[in-house]
Amino acid sequence: MRKKVYCTHCHGEMSVAHSALSSVCPHCNKRLVLENFKIKTYHAVREFATTGDVVVEPRGRLVANVRAANLIVDGEVRGAIVARERVSIHKHGTVKGDIDAPLLAIEAGAMLDGFLRIGGAAPVAIVRKKPAARKRVAAKK
Fold it and tell me: d(Cα 139, Cα 116) in Å, to the nearest integer?
């Protein structure tokens, strides 16, 4: 059984096994993490990218630029967010950073400090064409 995922780097579509935890994108050859994550404590990295979902629990604090399918915030996120499907900020959640997602849900009492880009179509695959082979022409004497 396989599932369809989109690369967090080039947005290319690919099919992977349901039990797979990581893969390599056939379009851009970069490593992809396919897992869902729950952030329960402090976690700081430069970039947090997964094709799955990220849940930041009430005591969780994520300091990173986040790229995921869905992001649910009950704790705190500091960094830019790009979600393929949805960002949900619950009552006690805090987000400090820009958000780019097709859907955004904010409960009363949540805090958001940043710019938004909401709606529109999900990112489409970037098609990279290989350059045409050059022909060598021999000079006539």
Answer: 58
Share above pLDDT 90 across residues of the chain, in percent, rounded to a whole number: 57
* pLDDT 10s digits, 91-127: 999 999 999 999 999 999 999 999 999 876 555 444 4
Token digits for 65? 């630029």
DSSP E strand stretches across the chain: 2-6, 13-17, 22-24, 31-33, 37-39, 42-49, 53-56, 61-73, 76-78, 81-89, 94-96, 99-101, 103-106, 111-113, 116-118
Do 41 and 99 belong to one domain? Answer: yes
Radius of gyration of the chain (CA): 19
Residue 141 inside a domain? The answer is no
In a shared domain, residues 98 and 45 = yes
78 lies in the same domain as 92 = yes
What is the span of the domain harbouring residue 7? Answer: 1-34
Q: What predicted TM-score, i.e. pTM, was given to this entire model?
A: 0.79
More confidently predicted of 111 and 130: 111
19 and 43 co-located in one domain: no
